[in-house]
């Protein structure tokens, strides 16, 4: 099916790599956010129908306007990778999950990610709650509705939901679920909780 | 996350990016968002020899179905900004078709969310 020259050493894409029924699909996205090592990549990998991919954005002024290469040297450039997966929901909707690190400084990436997102799932490690503050602030700043998924890593004592809500200063109706990011069903259940909540919000 | 060596490397990367995008600017965000779906136009005009190897590669990746802009960047391992600029050029020249995601609206959101919810339930119980 693939015509033209090959992709060099890279294997050609398979039919399953493409969006099934792409000509009539509406693409939507949900962000999976959280601090480093909270399980974002694991979560996306457990539920994605494609091998999770990643792409890089270069954070510089030149990244926004590539004409302006003068004085690039010495300018703050940093490359940030985001990873993502895909889930074909039906013959009408295809869902993308984007894993987004919590650092405030990646403004351009956050804008790209947040624009048009249905909502966000915030992964939280109950042993490192303070590390989640910045990410929750960002999500709120971008006006995204979110649910909390507590990733109870093995051996971690489960923290009572009440104290977690208090520590994270959550609104009463913000859903909190526990999830094992390695487990497809557990990840799917967390996502379902988020989407139910988003639906209730649009009423 | 990045060591000091990456820093030098990135300046070179940027120059390379500049060259392969032929100095074009980033396209309108809404036109080529991360989840805009892209495919090769069905009636392929004869490809001019002037296409760069990178443009050729993008066309090849897009030739067998729809992919999101993010997936195209992921598969080609080109930086996202570069991919968006090249895709915009190729779309303008008639080689590619794009399907931007629907504009956000309350009603559209509701229907989409209902569809996502029932899809998730059907898939994962
Ligand atoms: N026990 C356990 N380990 C996990 C879980 N989720 C992620 N991990 C591990 O935690 C580490 C960091 O996860 P990763 O997905 O890379 O985090 P990211 O930085 O947020 O993308 C990896 O070694 C994972 O295997 C989980 O639910 N349970
Ligand atoms: Mg990761």
UniProtKB/TrEMBL annotation, chain B:
InterPro entries: DUF742 (IPR007995), WH_DNA-bd_sf (IPR036390)
Taxon lineage: Bacteria, Bacillati, Actinomycetota, Actinomycetes, Kitasatosporales
Protein name as catalogued: DUF742 domain-containing protein
A Pfam family matched in the record: DUF742
Residues in coiled coil: none
